[in-house]
Amino acid sequence: MRAARGAGAGAALAMLLLAGCGGGDPKLMNLRASGPGPDEFGILPVKPLEIPETIGALPPPTPGGANRADPNPLGDAVAALGGNPAASGAIPAADAPVVAHATRFGRDATIRPTLAAEDYQWRRDNDGRLLERVFNVNVYFDAYRPMALDQQAELARWRAAGARNPSAPPVAGRE
Question: One digit per residue, pLDDT tens: the chain, 175 residues?
Fold first, then answer.
């Protein structure tokens, strides 16, 4: 009887250890849904339906295309900021000097994939210790702490350089 119990406990311990050694994508935040319901951030509200004056005013159907009631976050944000959502997405002529100045030393067309690969490797290297992975402990802030900006030190640096600061970050612990 004792041998069977010991074997069962050993098997459970082995399963826990194997679960902690998973080689999948690093999950630093370890967030889980608290219930079986839908994810409230995964649901996008649709625009209200509009009925035109005449049926002839309806656009022709586009199978597989977008619905007029579907959300368009990018276009809605552009319109809210006073832009033209129907624009092609190209750089406006008025902004060409700004873009030319920003890219005067050249630009790397592969910067996004490069940064994504470096961040993935950083997350793999800082995925937490074994028990943190087994018990789904949030290790995100510990992993990225070396990259965090010290707001107070940066404020002091800018003030020492003579830069005017109309606002400042809150002092920690004074909330």
Answer: 555 565 666 766 666 555 555 567 777 776 666 677 777 777 777 778 778 888 888 888 888 877 777 778 788 888 888 888 877 677 888 889 999 999 999 999 899 999 999 999 998 898 888 888 888 888 888 999 999 998 889 999 999 999 988 888 777 765 5
Q: Whole-model pTM? A: 0.50
Query: What is the rounded CA–CA span in Å between residue 15 and residue 12?
Result: 5
Of the chain, the end-to-end C-alpha distance in Å amounts to 58
HEC per residue, 123-147: HHHCCCCHHHHHCCCCCHHHHHHHH
Q: Alpha-carbon dihedral of residues 108, 114, 115, 117, nearest 10 degrees?
A: 170
The tokens describing 144, both together, are 């990225």
**In b/e form, how buried is each residue of 85-98, taking b as 16+ CB within 10 angstroms?**
eeeeeeeeeeeeee
